[in-house]
Amino acid sequence: MPLKLEGHHARKRFGQNFLNDRHWIGRIIDSIDPRPGEALVEIGPGQAALTKEVIGRAGHETAVEIDRDLAAWLRGLFTEAELTLIEADALALDWRSIFPGRKLRIFGNLPYNISSPILFALAAVADRVEDQHFMLQREVVERMVCPPGSRTYGRLSAMLQRSYRMEKLFDVPPGAFTPSPKVTSSVVRMVPLARKPGVDDELYAEVVAAAFGMRRKTLRNALSKLLSVEQIELAGIDPGARAETLSVGQFEALAAALGRARA
C-alpha cells in the first residue's frame, strides 16, 4: 500500500488541503502527545499524515473520514487493531456515541469551509472531551482566543470561550500543504471548562447571536426584541455597551435575565 493515495486530488467540496511537511507534522504530534490507551479521535485523516504518527505512538486511533476513496485507502493502510474508521460527515455524527463513558482527545486539520459549524457541534459535547487540538485558518484561531474588546472578538469568541480554555500554539505556512491554501494556518489547543450552573445553553446562544447580529449597535438596540433596558440594567450590564466589550460572564448574566423574563 503506497504512503499516499496515487491519483487522488484534493476535493474542494470537502475543503481538502493535505499536510505533508515532516517538520510541521512533528510539531503538531508533539503538541497532541498521544499515548497508548487514550480515546484518540481524528477528524479528517486525509492522506494519514497525522494518523501514521499518532498510531505509531499510541498504537490505535479512531478517525472520521467523509471521502469514500480515502476511507477505502485508509482501511488498506492500517489494520483494524490500529485504526477504527468511521466513514461519515463529522457534522452529522452523534459524538456521544463514540467511546461511551470515556473522555475523548479530538484532533485534526479541519476543513476551512466548515470549521465553525464543527466547533459549535463539538462544544455541545464538551463534557465528553479531555482536550482538542485543531489546525484552522489563522484568522479563525485569532477570533477564538482573543479577549473582549479586541477587534476580532465576536460570536465565535463568546461561544467557544464559555466552553474552553484555548491557546494558540503556532502558525503553519501554506507551503506545508498540498495544494497550498491561500492563507496561513494555526494550531489551537482547547481544554474544556466547567460550566457555570443555572445558565441555559440555548438562551446563552440566543443572546450572543442577537448581540452580535447587530454588531455596531448598542445592547439597548441589539437586544430590544429579547430584553428591555431595565432588564439589561438589572443584569448589571450597561445598555449602552456593545457586544464586543462583554465577557462570557456578562453574556451569562444576560442569558439568565432572559430566562427570568420568560419564566
UniProtKB/TrEMBL annotation:
Top-rank taxon, per record: Bacteria
Annotated InterPro entries: KsgA/Erm, rRNA_Ade_diMease-like_C, rRNA_Ade_methylase_Trfase_N, rRNA_adenine_dimethylase, SAM-dependent_MTases_sf
Molecular function GO terms recorded: 16S rRNA (adenine(1518)-N(6)/adenine(1519)-N(6))-dimethyltransferase activity
Sorted UniProt keywords: Cytoplasm, Methyltransferase, RNA-binding, rRNA processing, S-adenosyl-L-methionine, Transferase
The reaction(s) this protein catalyses: adenosine(1518)/adenosine(1519) in 16S rRNA + 4 S-adenosyl-L-methionine = N(6)-dimethyladenosine(1518)/N(6)-dimethyladenosine(1519) in 16S rRNA + 4 S-adenosyl-L-homocysteine + 4 H(+)
A Pfam family that the UniProt record links to this protein: RrnaAD
EC number: 2.1.1.182
Domain Ribosomal RNA adenine methylase transferase N-terminal, chain residue ranges per copy: 24-194
NCBIfam families: ksgA (TIGR00755)
Function comment: Specifically dimethylates two adjacent adenosines (A1518 and A1519) in the loop of a conserved hairpin near the 3'-end of 16S rRNA in the 30S particle. May play a critical role in biogenesis of 30S subunits.
Family according to the record: Belongs to the class I-like SAM-binding methyltransferase superfamily. rRNA adenine N(6)-methyltransferase family. RsmA subfamily.
UniProt name for this protein: Ribosomal RNA small subunit methyltransferase A
Gene from which the chain derives: rsmA
